[in-house]
Every structure is written in C-alpha cells, then in structure tokens.
Amino acid sequence: MIDIENSLSKSLKILLRIFGIWPNASYIPLRRIFWTIAIILEQILEYQWVVNHFYSNEPFEVMKILSETMTYTIMFIKVIIFWVKKRTFVRILTMMAIDWENRTIDEVSMIATTHNANLSRRLNNGTVILYTVAVMFHVSNVFMNDNDEKASNTSNTRPLVMNMDLPFDLSRTLVYDLVLIIQFIHLILCAYINGLLNILLINLILHVGGQIDILRKWLMDMFPKEGKLSEESTLSPLIVEKVIKKHQQIIIFSEHIEEMYTNIAMVLFVSDTLIICCLGYILVASIGSPDAVNIIMRTILFYVVSIMESFIYCFTGDYLTEKTNSIGDAAYNSYWYEGSAKESQFIVFLIMRSQKQLTLTIGKVMDLSMERFSSIIKASASYISVLIAAY
Questions:
Q1: Domain count along the chain
Q2: Are 350 and 247 a contacting pair, CB within 8 Å?
Q3: CA nearest neighbour of 112 among 202, 215, 11
Q4: Which residue has the higher pLDDT, 254 or 271?
Q5: Which end of the chain is more exposed for a tag (fewer CB within 10 A), N or C?
Q6: Is residue 372, in this structure, part of any structural domain at all?
Q7: What is the helix (H) or strand (E) element at residue 66, kind and residue range?
Q8: Of 218, 211, 299, which is closest to residue 248 (Cα–Cα)?
Q9: Cβ-contact 278, 333 below 8 angstroms
Q10: Residue 79 contacts by C-beta under 8 Å, 6 or more apart in sequence?
Q11: Measured between alpha carbons, how far is 361 from 258 in angstroms, rounded to an integer?
Q12: Taking the alpha carbons of 17, 20, 24, 29 in that order, is the dihedral positive or negative?
C-alpha cells in the first residue's frame, strides 16, 4: 500500500482536508455540502450588493467588490474541478509517493527529490504569509474607519469584511461582531485555498522537473565517456528499461497535471484579465481622491496577488516545455555513439518522443507561456485606459 500522506506539505494537506479535496479526509460529502452552501450563499449576497449599488456608489468601489466576488467564483470553480477530478488527483499523489519512496535508488534521485520537496514547502509557507498579509490589508477598512462611522449604529454605515446586502439588521453590536468574525474566517480560508491550489501546480511541476533531471543524469551515465563499449560490457537491458519507464512515468504524470488544470487555466485566462483590469482602474482612479492612501493600501496587494496568479500558470507552462526539450538534448549529448548501433537505437526513439513537448494548455486550445502572460497584461492595460476614458 502506497502512503500518500508525505506527498505534500502539512499546510496544504490541512486546507485540502478542510475543503474535502484530500482523498483520505473524513466526512468528505458533508464538507463538500457545507462549502457549497456557504460559497453559493456568499456569492448571491455579494452579487446582489453589486447589482443594487451599481449606480449609487463610486465606480471604483463597485469594481472592487465585483473583482472580489469574481475571485471567490474562480476559487469555487477550482474546488469543484478538484472534487470532480478526484481520481486523477489520487493518481498524481500516488505517483509522487512512489517517486519519494524510490529516491534512495541513487544519489541524484535523493538530491533532486529532496531539494524540490523542500522548495515546495517553502513556497507553501510563503504563500500562506503573503495571503494573510493581503487579507489584513484588504479588511483594513473595518479597523481604520473614522470616529463617526465607529459611533454609528446603523447598518448602512458600519463596514463589513465582505460587502453584502444582508436580510437582517446589523445595528446590534453582538450581531455585527458575529457577522464580522464569520466573514473574516470565510475570507481567510477561501484566500488560503485559492493561493495554495495555485502553488500546488508549482509543486507538481517542480516534481516533474526533478524527475526529468534524474532521467537526464541516467542518460548521460548510460554510455562511457571514453572508448567504445567492449563486448563484455554491453549495455544492460535493465538500464534501458529503467530509462524508458522513467520517461513514460514523466509523460503520464504531466498528462494528469494537464487534465487537472486545463479547465482552471481556461477560467483564469478570461477572469484574471477582467480582475486585473478592475483593480488597475481602482488604483489609477483613486489617485488624487481624499481616501487615496486607504484605497491603495486595501487594493495593492490584491492586485499583486492577481497578477502573480496569472504569472504562476504561464511560468509553469513555459518551465514544463523547456524541461521537456532538455530530455532530447541530454539524450543527444550523451555518448550514445560510443555504443553499438543496436544498443544506441533506443536513443533515437527517445529523442523523437521528447520532440512532442509536454505542455499545459488553456482548455486544450492554446499553450500557457510567458507570451500568454504578456498578452493578459496588455489586454488589461487596454481595458483600464478605456474605463478611465469612459468615467
């Protein structure tokens, strides 16, 4: 029985258990029902606020709430996709666990696997810190309002962590405080799962990169550096089999990642352009206003996190493509010509297979790359200029 518990960091496993994604979590159906009801209710109340206040509030305030609500929508779509693709996720975790158990085969396997696992844990912890700071800045309006707002007991002026049109009165202090606590917990958990599902993609791609580095090392060590193989020291079929199986495992693992994230990338490609556009408009439009510092403080980290999300997906797609190309380069640069024609024949097939690049796609339509990221930023900048001209 393969133990998948050590496949990912503890912080990521805790969040996946809370949202009913981790395969060994208890009461998974109840967790999923709870989060479905909670997020749908939150979405209805926030979108209702946007509709009711679309013309009565400042444009940048409406866009801020709209961008927040769209972010929660994207997060829920990510969670649903992980629920639906549970079997694929289990296969990914199982393959990672097998690679982790086999890391003691040789020194390069131990170094590559351990290094990428440690790097992944540091990225997870850094993401938790970044999103915690972003949430704190985002909700700073609750704690930085002026004395008049603090003294007021009306529901219209008392700020909320998440702007909603609630069907009950907030004038009572106990009710108001309870709503703030519930909203804050909901916000911080949703922010964590949204960020860590993005970092999970980096973890998986780093794992693939480590396995590719192991394969490249094996390819370089298969043939001697000097002199041809003697008749007594022929290339072992077991070594050839090990290399071919490793390449096949890398291909299968990459295809599983693509299956998990291709639809998520499609949603992000459309939504992140709009979210970055709205947040950029808020930052530009707030310059010169009396509340400029407060608005910028509440928005800037949210803006950075949104751009970082797009960058992560595009960068990982580029990284996977470059790593795939390095397999063919390593095979060609090895001393395959020092062996017999029969022994080096499989290198030709490996080079030919590696020419079919492993990629991450946007809904299986277009590849994720840094060029795609630049197009998102350019499109967002164009929309910001249109909005500024319109208002």
A1: 1
A2: yes
A3: 215
A4: 254
A5: N
A6: yes
A7: helix 59-84
A8: 211
A9: no
A10: 19, 21, 35, 193, 197
A11: 7
A12: positive
Q: Which H/E stretch holds residue 337?
A: none
Classify residue 220 by its DSSP letter: H
State both tokens at 257: 């990642």
Asked whether the whole model's pTM tops 0.90, one would answer no
pLDDT, one tens digit per residue, over 75-133 is 999 999 999 999 999 999 999 888 888 777 777 778 888 888 888 888 888 888 888 88
Question: Is the per-residue pLDDT at 387 higher than 90?
Answer: no
- The answer to whether residue 230 is domain-embedded is no
- State how far the Cα of 273 lies from the Cα of 120, in Å rounded to an integer: 27
User: Within 10 Å of residue 29's Cβ, how many Cβ atoms?
Assistant: 8
Which has the closest alpha carbon to 203: 301, 302, 89, 105? 89
How far, CA to CA in Å, does 345 sit from each of 190, 194, 339, 348, 349? 52, 47, 10, 6, 7
In a domain, 371, yes or no: yes
Q: In whole angstroms, give the CA distance from residue 332 to residue 60.
A: 56
How many residues does the structure list for the chain?
Answer: 391
Within a domain: 76: yes
Task: Report the DSSP beta bridge partners of residue 361.
Answer: 367
Residue 323 in contact with residue 209, Cβ under 8 Å? yes
- The candidate with the shortest Cα–Cα distance to 311, out of 374, 364, 383, 380, is 374
Locate tokens 């206040």: which residue?
Answer: 53
Taking the CA atoms of 113, 119, 122 and 124 in sequence, report the sign of the dihedral they define: negative
Bridge partner list, 367: 361
Pair 315, 307: CB distance under 8 Å: no
Confidence of residue 32 (pLDDT cuts 50, 70, 90): very high
User: Do residues 51 and 84 make contact, with C-beta atoms less than 8 angstroms apart?
Assistant: no
C-alpha distances (whole Å) from 120 to each of 4, 33, 74, 257 are 16, 30, 23, 16
Cα distance between residue 194 and residue 56, in whole Å: 31
Q: Which phi and psi angles does 45 have, rounded to 5°?
A: -70, -35
Give alpha helix (H) positions in 222-291.
237-286
Would strands 361-362 and 366-367 be described as parallel, antiparallel, or unpaired?
antiparallel
What is the per-residue pLDDT across 341-383, written as a single tens digit (0 to 9) for each?
Answer: 777 778 888 888 888 888 899 888 888 888 888 888 888 888 7
